[in-house]
Amino acid sequence: MINCTNIRIDDTHLHVELEDGRILSTPLDWYPVLKAASETEYLNYKLIARGTMIEWPALDLHLDIEEMFKIEHKEEAA
């Protein structure tokens, strides 16, 4: 099981700090809702499912950390 301990967001990436010390960085372009969010909105997150998922309640966004390890990312139609 891959567990998250903290997240950080900069201008281009979502950085997920893992319990084992690794940091997983993925482009914000993969998450349009998160990219468009205000700082207040993206800082308001919760670790759920024993740290295996990240939830932004105000954005109705849930990310499964194991899914973030997938090499290929498919764009979703709007």
Concise structural overview:
This protein is an alpha+beta fold. It has a single domain (4-68), classed as NE0471 N-terminal domain-like, CATH 3.30.2020.
Q: Count of helical segments?
A: 3
Count of the domains = 1
Could you say what the CATH topology is called?
A: NE0471 N-terminal domain-like
Radius of gyration over C-alpha positions, nearest whole angstrom: 12 Å
Helical fraction: 10-25%
Largest sheet: 3 strands, antiparallel
Looking at the structure, what is the overall shape?
globular
Strand proportion: 35-45%
Mean pLDDT equals 89
Class derived from helix and strand content: alpha+beta
How many β strands by DSSP? 6
CATH architecture: 2-Layer Sandwich
Side-by-side strand order of the widest sheet:
1-2-3
Low-pLDDT segments, ≥5 res: none
Distance between the ends: 32 Å
**The top level CATH class name:** Alpha Beta
